[in-house]
Amino acid sequence: YRIYTEYPGWFVKNGDIITIIVNDARNPNIIKISPQIRINVTESKSVKNGFFRYWLVDTKLGLKVPYKWQLILKKSLNDNFSISSANIVTMSGLMLQVYQDGRKENGLEFGKSVVEEEWAHVGVIQKVPLFTTLSFYIFPTFNSTRGLTESGIRISDATFRHLLILFSEEVSTKQYKYSLYNTGLQEIILVLPTQLNTWNYYEINMAESWGYLGWELPKEFYIELYVAAHYTKPGNYTVYFNEVLTK
């Protein structure tokens, strides 16, 4: 038998020595005890836990987050958010939801910077080695509008270049836009035609999308899946993701 898992349990670390015990399923009799095995973890070169099957408890926040993804949160006192594994229609996946209370609260602290205007934002982010294709399923429940309500994927090279992928049923073909901010941030915005309230499948060609302005592909990317709402658009906003894969 060959026993393996792409996502080893958090109680087993690289270099640990373990023993596998095989029992009869119908009674506690031991059938076989393996020799000692040293755990040797081979790092995946693609997105980890892109099916969102594995979750850990973030002890600082007191909530579950998907294994190998880091939570990003931005909100004011009365905004709220939710992150969980959820079944929707025919597929399970990651659910992200924000509640925007509609109140403007300037000067919110977000990390070490100051947010100029109030947003409710929740996302998960992961660093991934260079890839040429990103594929995923998304179940959006509202139209994405840059700067107001967004269900999207942000891909960055950890410097000043971002590719922002948004989803809307108000466009019939994919659309590219470009924004340059006084902070030096450059942002390519790709709006994809979508159907709301159903699963949509996409494959993103990074040579085309990231190279829209002639940018060279970096050695690694950061991928963030998120949902966000500006204070001028109060209410609940929800999006679902699944099978986020790179190659």
Note down, in words, how this protein is organized.
- The protein has 247 residues and is an all-beta fold.
- The radius of gyration is 21 Å and the shape is globular.
- It is 2% helix and 51% strand.
- The protein has one helix and 20 strands.
- Strands 7-12-19-14-15-17-16 form a seven-stranded mixed β-sheet, with no helix packed on it.
Topology:
Layout: E1 17-18, E2 21-23, E3 30-33, E4 37-38, E5 55-58, E6 63-66, E7 70-74, E8 80-88, E9 91-100, E10 108-110, E11 113-115, E12 119-129, E13 133-140, E14 149-156, E15 161-168, E16 175-180, E17 186-193, E18 200-205, H1 206-209, E19 220-230, E20 235-246
Parallel strand pairs: 15-17
Antiparallel strand pairs: 1-4, 2-3, 5-6, 7-12, 8-9, 9-20, 10-11, 12-19, 13-18, 13-20, 14-15, 14-19, 16-17
